Amino acid sequence: MINISHAWEEPLKHLVSAVPTLPGASNDMLKKANAVKDRNHVLQEGMKTILSRSQIEVEENAYPTWSGLADLQSSDEDTHLFAFYSLVRCLKRDTHKIDTYLKVLRCRVVFNNECF
C-alpha cells in the first residue's frame, strides 16, 4: 500500500498545478487538492512507521509510474479535462484500496483478528 501512496506523489503535484486551469475552478478546489497532496505525504510516513514495526520489507521504487502528464498538460480542452477526470477517478479508487487495507491491518493488529 505504501507503493500505491508513493506512486501518487508526482501526479498529485501535477493535479495541484492543473486545478487553476479548470473552467470555474475556485480557491477551495485548490486548497482541497493541496490538502490531499499533504495528507498523502502524512499517510506515507505513517505507513512507513507501521511497516518498520511489523518487520515487513518494502521494495524501493516498486510502484507504478504515471503516464498521463502529457494529456493533463494538453492544450486540447477535452483531452485536458478527461485526463483530469481520470486522475481524480484513479485517486479515488486507490484511496479506497489504501483505506480498506488499513482497516484490515487495524483489525489484525488492534483487535487480534476479532473484529467481524
UniProtKB/TrEMBL annotation:
The keyword Zinc applies. Zn(2+) binds at D99. It is found in: Secreted. Keywords: Hormone, Metal-binding, Secreted, Zinc. GO terms for biological process: female pregnancy; mammary gland development; positive regulation of cell population proliferation; positive regulation of lactation; positive regulation of receptor signaling pathway via JAK-STAT; response to nutrient levels. GO terms for molecular function: hormone activity; metal ion binding; prolactin receptor binding. This is Prolactin. Signal peptide: none annotated. Gene3D superfamilies: 1.20.1250.10. It comes from Neotoma lepida (Desert woodrat). Belongs to the somatotropin/prolactin family. GO terms for cellular component: extracellular space. It comes from the Eukaryota. The keyword Transferase does not apply. PROSITE patterns: SOMATOTROPIN_2 (PS00338). Pfam families: Hormone_1 (PF00103). InterPro entries: 4_helix_cytokine-like_core (IPR009079), Somatotropin/Prolactin (IPR001400), Somatotropin_CS (IPR018116).
